[in-house]
Specification:
The structure is a single chain. By secondary structure, the protein is α/β, with parallel strands linked by helices. The protein has 41 helices and 18 strands. Strands 9-8-10-14-17-18 form a six-stranded mixed sheet, with helices on both faces. A five-stranded mixed sheet has the order 3-2-1-6-7. The chain has a three-stranded antiparallel sheet with strand order 11-12-13. α25 packs antiparallel against α27. The protein is elongated and about 110 Å long. The relative contact order is 0.05.
Length: 991
């Protein structure tokens, strides 16, 4: 179950009338002040005016001591010069009130503003803008101290005056709207807050234009409230606009920029990009530490943000440290009954809940709720947050009755504020359903999941529209727990309707990132908008540069002058900009499909098997399930098969191959646990459409032996898909292969005599395609394929020896891309090093330690040994290194290529991300736009691979079979000629 996070966002409205080159301005004003003192004396009114001007500048840069000295000096001059009831004296009181507000001395601030109010009305009347300014300042103080009713009253008084005197288009009016928006935001009325912020923004845009800091202030506020309601796209858009304005107008060290960074940190945390979140939050903290003293409440804001983020990453020690720092500041600045203190208590409770200390968590949650009841009414969303978290803690203690009671209290409040689609409501429903399940009330739990899951699917698809490929994967991780909880309930207690819902969820979320990425690239080409195409090309260049940069040393990067941080920021900006294109968004948004859509697509002798792996809370273990659909299925069938530990046993390597391939006994046992449970549901079935999950991506199902010692490939036709919804995609018409680029017989050494180092471990006794040794079989392979193509008038280009380079491959893309790309070379997937291997240097070390699995999946090209073994900077001046990583492949445009064959070792392997699939070469070529990819599950033999490939291409080109049939028949002929499964079963087609 997941906790309810209450973000602490202190939106302090600061008035800043002086911008630009402050240092030089201060120097000039100090010179002028001294000159005025010398010529006019220390008690002249002009000296007081200059003291006020300098005081405002020092206040703006955070030098409050100097500002206070100047304001006091100005006040003393004015008191001697005028009678008590003078507007100049009221000005000074107002200035001192604002200063003491910044200094968090709120009692003094109120006192000074009230002194100003005792003067203004008698001199100016009740409707003067100076009085409105004082009302506004008092409103800010009462907002900050948690007295929201008084704050609204003062801001409305200010607003009323400014509406009368300004004609509706004045910055002070916008300031009032912003300040009222802040209050309604913290009161939970986000709709009203957005309306008020929008009014402020429209006024400021008309008055100041698009680049003024006041505009940024409104964008910041809008970003804050959009973040709170879970509209991350609008939040990021507004906050980036604000940040860019602040950075250009005020510089990188201004506290306004810190506000934007801090809220951006919350947003990135909300979508699971914790690395980016921490980066933004630390920037905000560093700025604030330089500007404010160590007890300023905005530092508490930063500490809470960092504490919550580290809580999400599981670093509870850091989380508690930051949250305690914030609590110390807030108790010191405010009284112990302030809402900000309550928020701190709530967030500390969250961390103790995550550590399993439920009693301590409840203690903090109760402290928070007691304060919220005092400060707000009993229907405030802050109180709902605390109630929901108390429910979590009681659930953790096994007290389900109390847990449900508190959840219902929270729901009662939230449903009075938000609709059922709000993230807080959805999370509460999820937690309640889990509690009902654990208390064996399955009927209520079932009904609640039917509320939660459809909204989850809708929210996921909406959020996906603006996230980049990298961010989507991180966002998915934030949803995995919800999905796993639902699947676990479904398989243990779900009704038929719930199983349908689970099948639909899997259909609409499996390999979703891959789907969005593929559709984005295709749609950009179809839309044919110059601006969109240019942005896409620019993004591709940045992506390629970053992919190359990860293989380079610090010295190499410095030599070519690449700033990686700058490039990553540009990458993110371009991706976001591209996904804002209205036509792309409209076409990219997918329709939700249902399992019956798949069923209606099937023939009577066809079945789909959609696999998933889930953590079964009932048995405390990871298990695999198969969801089977046939033409006559009444409901999707959920069948439990092998557990993760058993799967590990049979996939363990023995003699360089999976164990189940090398021992008949193991093969039969594996069949019994993996496939036999499915047999009753597959009567009369000849074709099986498979979508693997988890480690099942590494299983060659056709190589399993049934009870009659018959390979499953002799009984079924298997077809593999990243996601089962791919079955609904329009079938390709008969493909006419016009050209082929055939790569093999590569010189890996540059004629450089060095010991051959291997990418993976040594393979004994066989010529395995996984090291850097020459592969003589690949020459015969590509020349045989060349002969087949030429006889059919298919244009071929053979790349061998020194010609297979990254530069050459990148030439054959876009309009020059061939129908077929065939790679006969070394390949592999590098496992991350263990703790003992962290000292690995050079390109091998950089690749193996990369967090990105697409950098650890690779093909070896010309000169690979030179770079790998000798670790020279680069083979050529263009930076080639003889290693083509999957990440570099994603930058190729191969949308005109129908088939890529990776005739190399382990090219179907990679890192598996739950339902998203395998991140490796096969995915990379799919992302590049290739329709069909043939890749290998294990280390393949040079000679037998050559034989399989010749038979496959004969079927494909001479006999004009479709790709899947051509591969299946090639494998069948190899079996009939007594080849072993390790010789033919390793290659699979991903359609």
């Amino acid at each position: 179950m997941r906790a309810f996070i209450f973000c602490f966002l202190m939106a302090i409205c600061l008035i800043n009338n002086v911008h630009g080159q402050r240092d030089s301005l201060i120097m000039e004003l100090e010179k002028t002040l001294q000159a005025q003192i010398d010529s006019l004396g220390e008690e002249h009114l002009d000296v007081a005016v200059l003291c006020d001007s300098l005081g405002w500048i020092y206040m703006d840069i955070g030098d409050y001591v100097q500002a206070d000295s100047l304001f006091i000096k100005a006040l003393e001059i004015k008191i001697k010069k005028f009678q008590e009831k003078n507007s100049h004296i009221a000005d000074s009181y107002n200035n001192l009130g604002v200063l003491h507000y910044y200094m968090s001395d709120y009692d003094k601030a109120i006192s000074f503003h009230n002194k100003a109010l005792n003067i203004w009305p008698e001199i100016l009347g009740e409707q003067d803008s100076n009085i409105a300014t004082t009302y506004n300042n008092l409103g800010n103080i009462y907002y900050t101290t948690g007295h929201y009713e008084e704050a609204i009253s003062f801001h409305n008084r200010a607003l009323s005056i400014w509406l009368r005197v300004s004609g509706g288009k004045h910055p002070n009016l916008a300031n009032s709207y912003n300040n009222l928006g802040n209050i309604y935001s913290i009161l939970g009325d986000n709709e009203e807050a957005i309306k008020l912020y929008g009014k402020a923004l429209n006024i400021d845009l008309e008055v100041f234009g698009e680049k003024h800091p006041y505009i940024a202030h409104s964008y910041n506020n809008l970003g804050d409230v959009y973040m709170k309601i879970g509209d991350y796209e609008k939040a990021i858009s507004c906050l980036n606009k604000a940040l860019n304005i602040y950075l250009k107008a005020l510089g990188e060290k201004h506290h306004y920029a810190a506000n934007s960074y801090n809220i951006l940190g919350y947003v990135y945390g909300g979508i699971g990009n914790y690395e980016k979140a921490i980066s933004c939050l630390e920037k905000a903290l560093n700025i604030r530490l330089n500007v404010f003293d160590e007890k300023h409440p905005t530092l508490a804001d930063s500490y809470i943000a960092l504490g919550l983020t580290y809580n999400e990453t599981g670093d509870y020690e850091k989380a508690i440290s930051y949250l305690n720092k914030s609590l110390d500041i807030l108790i010191d600045v405010f009284d112990e009954k302030h809402s900000f203190v309550a928020i701190s208590y709530n967030n500390l409770g969250l961390t103790y809940y995550e550590t399993g200390d439920y009693e301590k968590a409840i203690s903090y949650f109760n402290k928070a709720s007691d304060i919220f009841i005092d400060v707000f009414d009993e229907k405030h969303n802050s109180l709902a947050t605390s109630y929901g978290n108390i429910g979590l803690a009681y659930n953790g203690m096994g007290n389900y009755e109390k847990a449900i009671n508190y959840y219902n209290k929270a729901l009662d409040i939230w449903l009075g504020i938000f609709d059922k689609k709000h993230s807080s409501v959805m999370l509460c429903y999820e937690n309640v359903s889990i509690t009902y399940e654990e208390s064996h009330n399955y009927k209520i739990a079932d009904s609640l999941w039917h509320i939660t899951i459809p909204q989850n699917i809708e929210h996921l698809q909406k959020t996906y529209l603006f996230l980049s490929e990298k961010q989507r994967i991180k966002y998915l991780k934030t949803l995995n727990k919800t999905y796993n909880n639902f699947y676990s309930f479904t398989t243990n207690h779900g009704t038929d309707n719930t199983k349908e819902l689970a099948a639909n969820l899997l259909l609409n979320t499996k390999a979703l990132d891959l789907d969005y990425s593929l559709n984005t690239r295709k749609l950009i080409k179809q839309i044919n908008d110059d601006s969109l195409s240019n942005t896409s090309r620019e993004l591709t260049i940045i992506n390629n540069q970053l992919a190359k940069a990860e293989t380079m040393s610090e010295e190499e990067l410095k030599k070519i002058g690449w700033d990686i941080t700058e490039k990553r920021e540009k990458q993110e900006k371009l991706a976001f900009q591209m996904l804002q294109h209205p036509e792309l968004r409209k076409k990219l948004n997918p329709e939700t499909i249902e399992w019956q859509d798949i069923q209606n697509h099937l023939e009577v002798d066809e079945a789909t098997i959609d696999f998933m792996d889930i953590y079964d809370r009932k048995d405390s273990t990871w298990v695999y399930y198969a969801i089977i659909t046939t033409k006559n299925t009444v409901n999707p069938e959920f069948i439990r098969i092998v557990d993760d530990n058993t799967l590990d046993t049979y996939l363990a390597s023995r003699k360089n191959f999976p164990r189940y391939l090398t021992e008949t006994f193991d093969n039969s046992n594996f069949y019994e646990q993996l496939w036999r449970p499915l047999i009753p549901h597959l009567k009369g079935i000849k074709t099986i459409h498979l979508s693997p999950a988890g480690r099942l991506h590494n299983v060659a199902f056709e190589a399993l032996l049934n009870e009659d010692k018959q390979y499953l490939s002799d009984k079924y036709e298997f077809r593999y898909y990243s996601a089962m919804r791919d079955l609904l995609k329009e079938k390709q018409k008969a493909v006419k292969y016009e050209s082929a680029v055939l790569i093999g017989n590569i010189d890996y050494d540059l004629s450089y005599n060095t010991p051959k180092e291997e990418i993976l471990e040594e393979k004994e006794g066989r010529s395995i395609r996984s090291g850097f040794d020459s592969l003589p079989g690949t020459r015969e392979e590509i020349y045989n394929l060349d002969s087949i193509c030429r006889e059919l008038d298919i244009k071929t280009i053979i790349l061998e020896g020194q010609y297979p380079t990254e530069d050459t491959i990148s030439y054959f893309i876009r309009d020059k891309a061939p129908s077929i790309y065939h790679f006969a070379t070394h390949g592999g997937f590098l496992s991350p090093p263990d703790a003992l291997d962290l000292h690995i240097e050079g390109i091998s070390g950089r690749l193996r330690t990369s967090d990105n699995p697409l950098q650890r999946s690779l093909l070896v090209l010309h000169g690979g040994n030179y770079r790998w073994a000798k670790n020279e900077p680069a083979i050529r001046s263009n930076g080639e290194d003889g290693i083509l990583t999957a990440l570099e492949v994603t930058g190729l445009d191969l949308q005109n290529t129908n088939l890529v064959v990776l005739s190399a070792c382990e090219t179907a392997k990679g890192k598996v991300y739950n339902t998203e699939g395998v991140f490796g070469l096969q995915r990379a070529f799919k992302l590049a736009g290739v329709d069909n990819v043939i890749a290998s599950l294990w280390n393949v033999d040079d000679e037998t691979t050559k034989e399989l490939m010749i038979r496959f291409y004969t079927n494909l080109l001479e006999k004009k079979m479709e790709v899947a049939t051509a591969l299946r028949e090639a494998k069948k002929s190899m079996r009939e000629d007594d080849y072993q499964p390790k010789d033919w079963a390793g290659f699979i087609l991903i359609e």
